[in-house]
Specification:
The protein is mainly β and 151 residues long. It has one domain: Jelly Rolls. The strands form three sheets. It has a six-stranded antiparallel β-sheet with strand order 1-2-3-10-5-8, with helices on one face. A three-stranded antiparallel β-sheet has the order 7-6-9, with no helix packed on it. A hairpin with an 8-residue loop joins β2 and β3. It starts with 15 loop residues before the first strand and ends in a 6-residue tail after the last strand.
Length: 151
């Protein structure tokens, strides 16, 4: 909702949901600078590290225990932790607790990513290769698979 002085206020029941992602704002609302989502994930959730060319990303952990994994490091983080990922830096989050959620402030290129992934899965095209291609179209370059993740 927009207030009379043009503030954008998104109440919990107004969020768009795409699987485990709830959109707060698209980059179009920030003059193409960044978007914001809340991610909710279960134990073991992670995947491949990835990076965003020329764009930073940030995470604020709301609940749960996680690890932030870089190209060479693994750092435990929990509620209240903030992570700033510089541009061109390999990273992923790995959920250690039963559940976790975090605020992600992400590059503008990720606008439309949750919809495309959800559509592909709904259409039966949720295989890793298709999902990787969708992520590539949204400016995400894949890194390495974490050791405890299946191919």
């Amino acid at each position: 909702m927009r207030t009379s002085d043009n503030l954008l206020v998104v109440q919990p029941d107004e969020r768009q949901h795409f699987g485990d992602i709830a959109r707060l704002v698209e980059a179009g609302e920030t003059n193409g600078r960044w978007g914001a989502v809340i991610v909710h994930a279960e134990r073991g959730t992670s995947g491949m590290t990835h990076l965003h060319r020329g764009e930073p990303e940030a995470f604020f952990i709301l609940e749960g225990d996680l690890e932030v994994c870089g190209a060479e490091s693994v750092t435990p983080i929990g509620p209240g932790s903030f992570v700033l990922v510089p541009p061109d830096t390999e990273h992923t989050l790995h959920v250690l607790s039963e559940e976790a959620s975090w605020l992600a402030i992400w590059p503008s290129a990720l606008d439309g990513l949750p919809e495309e992934i959800e559509r592909a899965r709904t259409e039966g095209r949720g295989d890793p290769e298709t999902l990787m291609e969708i992520r590539r179209r949204h400016g995400t370059e894949s890194g390495r698979r974490l050791p405890d993740q299946a191919p």
